[in-house]
Amino acid sequence: MMKKKNLQNGQDKENNTGEKKSNVKRRTLLKALAGIPVLGVFAFELFNKRSYDLEKKNRILKELELDNLNVPVIKPSSGDKRDLLRVGLIGFGNRAVSHANGLGYMHPEDVEKRKSNGTLEDWLAQEDLNIALTGICDVFDLHADRGLATARNILRPGGGKAADLPVKRYRTYQEMIEDKAVDAVMIATPDHNHAPIAVAAARAGKHVYCEKAPCHSEEQMNDVYNAVKTSKIVYQLGHQVPQSVVFQQARDIIKKAILGKITLIETTTNRNTADGAWIRHLDANGNPKPGDEKTIDWGQWLGPAPRVPFSLDRFYNWTKFFDYDIGLIGQLFTHEFDAVNQLLRIGIPRSVVSSGGIYYWKDNREMADLLQCVFEYPDHELTLLYSASLASSRNRGRVFMGHDASMELGDAINITVDGDSTRYKKQIDAGIMDPSGPMISFNPNLGKIDAVTSATEKYYAARGLTTTNINGRQVDVTYLHIREWINCIRNGGIPSANIEMAFDEGITCMMAHKAYVEKRRVEWDPANRKIV
Amino acid sequence: MKEKYTYTSWQLTMMVLFRFLIGWHLLYEGFSKVITPNWTSFSFLKESKWILEGFAGWITSHAAVLSIVDFLNTWGLIAIGLGLVLGLFTRIAAFSGAALLFIYYLNNPPLVGLEYNLPSEGSYLIVSKTLIEVASLLVIAVFPTSPVFGLDRFIFLRKDDKKIKNETEA
Fold first, then answer.
1. Which one of A34, A450, A459 has the shortest CB-CB distance to B16?
2. B108-123 tens-digit pLDDT
3. Do A381 and A515 lie in a common domain?
4. Total tally of structural domains belonging to chain A
5. pLDDT at B3
6. Per the domain annotation, does A138 fall within a domain?
7. Start-to-end Cα distance in chain A
8. What backbone phi and psi angles, to 5 degrees, belong to B163?
9. Which of A1, A14, A26, A39 would best serve as a mutation to test chain B binding (most B beta carbons within 10 A)?
């Protein structure tokens, strides 16, 4: 605009003041426009660079047939049925808070907390699941009261309205399960109580969402399996990790056999804090947390476990003791196993060896704080490794190793081509693929699958310096997992962490635990479905 | 303008070249953010140390604020780059560019005792390339070339035709 206008001005003046002056004028004008050709060169080079980058990216993605992978989106609930579902929570500790949030319920104090740290919006953006939280059952008065306050808060995400139903505290889980006013239960008690509650619920026809581990013994696992199989309920085990968007992509990558033949999977736990080692009976000031025999129904808490006098240590730090849990295997390997089994469907291993000890946290614990388990799958021609340390937080990730490439799967996916790959030899020789760093990275924060091109991008990708993000929203994976369960209850279908998956996991964990305790190689007898 | 600054032709040429180079750099910094899908300053701000650490933390913890910052940063860089290359509102562009880059500098200055997760692409102690570019932009601001080699000429033309006339004849 400006250029044209002034050119016109220049023209006028030229006519008025003679030829000599007009030459000067023209030169002045050209000088003034000196930036235009520079900009022209810039635009040309920008176009060049962009074409080159896209070409390179597409070449790698095309070679791997990944060019048609889509950006993950949150799909709305499937199915038409949305009738009100009445849910009871059994056990209202930390984990149940996430369950309540996933169902669309939040304690008023947590609402304020999230308001001040700016994360309330993400929760309010959750779809309303049309749930009525009608029952809270906890053996500890303090926890139960917190649960009741949560259930009574009328704030709902997704524009939902509070159902006009009373909220009841149940003293025992049996009472809740017998009550016709509850359709489904979510179990978040210490592990030794999971199976008995799940069995009772299944027999009473209540749908079950149970936290991991699914059982505390082989016998318990069989009881849960039989009870669920002979009922019509929907059983979902609490493994929210595969709901994350990176898992959807990992499935595609496995399906397309990009890694080549996978023979080794390494899963790890890397923690180095007292809290991470399940020492949790003290508050932030070092004082014992609340709770005594008056406010805690100790007999019910013990459930099927041997009778022992009340102990705050056992109540808060139950993971340390084999009467209530199987330590690292029950708490953390369960997630690792589920992640691997969801992707590869390897099921129960032929044999397991475990070794480890109590090397760092020398308190009264029974669980190992350093533990290594090796699971053999001769039928699938692969080994699954679990290596856990509670005394070093060096990050070792979760890695699937194939002949042609390896995949690290965490908050992000990083695929690194193998320098000795036969399938990608040509591309490696041609310099299209570089084995020295991640070749493909999927980072939900970046929103799409992408070939990594620059050093900084590689660095970010390797660190997973991000949080899970779908369409610009932080999405709670527990909520997605609960939603899947509820959809299956209303519209039929089989949830991802169903009873068959739970059985694989429960048996595998019991084998690893048995191998550790009995210090021997433990095998699975598939014909008799028995650990030997 | 002309009364205050008289350059030899080499001085003028070098100053114009200098302006083009820095303009080009900032322009591409801006465009590269436009063409990178879902680019965000999140990771950069997460790394913030020293006096702006708290402020950067506030930005990254508020998605809406972060998206505004991203927008202003990207298009600010493009506007500044265009200003420098075309010689349009050059002094404003140079000063804004210096201010913007100084904010980058303050977010991760290479001071003794500050450790960063991300490796830097050179070796720096207090003085980094960013700081040098800040100073360069200030040089461009105080040694103007755009009234001759730039669209600013037309602004001056409109503002004071006579003054420009003298200048061109000189």
1. A34
2. 888 887 877 766 778 8
3. yes
4. 2
5. 46
6. yes
7. 86
8. -60, -45
9. A39
Give the gyration radius of chain A's Cα atoms. Answer: 30
A118 touches chain B (CB under 8 A): yes
**Counting Cβ atoms within 10 Å, is residue B123 exposed (0-12), middle (13-18) or buried (19+)?**
exposed
Question: Which residues in chain A touch residue B169, judged by CB atoms under 8 angstroms apart?
Answer: 24
Please give the mean pLDDT across all residues of chain A. Answer: 87
Q: Is residue A68 part of a domain?
A: no
Best CA proximity match to A228, nearest among A259, A203, A251, A192: A203
- Do residue A258 and residue A382 come from a single domain? yes
Can you give the pLDDT at residue B99? 92
Residues A356 and A458 in one domain: yes
- Provide the edge-to-edge strand list for the sheet that holds A405-409: A448-451, A440-443, A413-417, A405-409, A399-402, A262-270, A382-389, A370-377, A351-357, A522-525, A530-531
Question: Whose CA is closest to A418, among A246, A252, A256, A263?
Answer: A263
Handedness of CA B50, B52, B58, B62 (dihedral sign): negative
SS percent in chain B: helix, strand, coil, step 5: 70, 0, 30
Tell me which H or E stretch contains B20. Answer: helix B9-35
Q: Are residues A149 and A226 in the same domain?
A: yes
Provide the mean pLDDT of chain B: 83
**pLDDT (0 to 100) of residue B62:** 76
User: A386 near A513, Cβ under 8 Å?
Assistant: no
Expressed as residue numbers, the domain containing A130 is 85-243+484-499
Q: In whole angstroms, give the CA distance from residue A8 to residue A10.
A: 5
Asked if residue A2 belongs to a domain, the reply is no
Statement to judge: residues A112 and A202 lie in one domain: yes
Same-domain pairing of A221 and A266: no
DSSP bridge partners of A473: A470
A59 pLDDT tier (thresholds 50, 70, 90): confident
Residue A56 falls inside a structural domain: no
Task: Check which CATH number belongs to the domain holding A101 and give it.
Answer: 3.40.50.720
Which of B35, B86, B154 is nearest residue A39 as measured by Cβ atoms?
B86
Å from A120 to nearest chain B CA?
11
CATH number at residue A458: 3.30.360.10
Categorize the per-residue pLDDT at A34 as very low, low, confident or very high, splitting at 50, 70 and 90. Answer: confident
- ipTM for the predicted complex comes to 0.81
Does residue B62 belong to the interface with chain A, where contact is any CB pair within 8 Å?
yes
Residue of A nearest to B120 (CA): A456
Give the model confidence (pLDDT) of A446-468 as tens digits: 543 444 444 444 434 333 322 34
Residues A262 and A370 in one domain: yes
| In the predicted structure, residue A334 carries a pLDDT above the cut 90 | yes
A121 pLDDT higher than 70:
yes
**Whether A295 and A436 share a structural domain:** yes
CA B7, B12, B18, B22 torsion-angle sign: positive
Question: Are B91 and B145 within 8 A, CB to CB?
Answer: no
Predicted pLDDT at A5: 35
